[in-house]
Specification:
Helix content is 51%, strand content 2%. The chain is an all-alpha fold and 184 residues long. It has a two-stranded parallel ribbon with strand order 1-2. The longest helix is centred in the middle third of the chain and has 17 residues. The radius of gyration is 16 Å and the shape is globular.
Length: 184
């Protein structure tokens, strides 16, 4: 049995990155809690490496009540101040506030799953990239969702963040055509 090939970013020594590539990235997700988790983590990642955020993921789960949307939406200024002191998080006031703001926007929205999957009629967009360099930083779909999310009050949801989010939760499958984890 031959070795399974991976996208270059997932074919690394880092076990967390490899596991994320193999078992999560590009896999369709409709779970509300995980969708909120990934939105929060993608916002935290802005300007940083995904590896950095992935290694902080467990700290984020603990600090943000396992991404319970109702609990995060209820955070007050003292809770935000507490989170800003947590060394396991990216201690950026705007990013932490964005998580709380996004939880509140999500409660008003009702279902993040219905909202985002509605843009693709419930079916993932499967791209056919041959080289990692071909992957775009954003797309017309991501830009449209970004604009609509901003209108709904979401923060840290620019086109690039949203495109990365769509990849993370499987609305967009950007595994390279030769990747053994493409799943189609």
């Amino acid at each position: 049995m031959g070795e399974i090939h991976r996208c270059p970013w997932g074919d690394v020594v880092d076990a967390l990155m490899r596991d994320y590539h193999d078992n999560e990235w590009g896999k369709p997700c409709r779970d509300e809690r995980r969708l909120f988790e990934m939105l929060t983590l993608e916002g935290a990642q802005a300007g940083l490496s995904w590896r950095t955020i992935l290694h902080k993921r467990e700290a984020y789960k603990a600090a943000f009540d396992d991404f319970d949307v109702a609990k995060v939406a209820a955070y007050d200024e003292s809770k935000i101040a507490e989170l800003l002191q947590n060394p396991g998080l990216v201690r950026n006031r705007l990013k932490i506030r964005a998580a709380v703001t996004n939880a509140r926007a999500l409660l008003r929205l009702g279902s993040l799953s219905d909202f985002i999957w509605g843009y693709v009629d419930g079916k993932p967009v499967v791209n056919a990239w041959e080289r990692q360099e071909q992957l775009p930083a954003t797309s017309p779909l991501a830009d449209k969702i970004s604009r609509d999310m901003k209108k709904l009050g979401f923060k840290f949801v620019g086109g690039t963040i949203v495109y990365s989010y769509l990849q993370a939760v499987g609305l967009v499958n950007d595994h390279l055509v030769w990747c053994g984890h493409r799943g189609i």
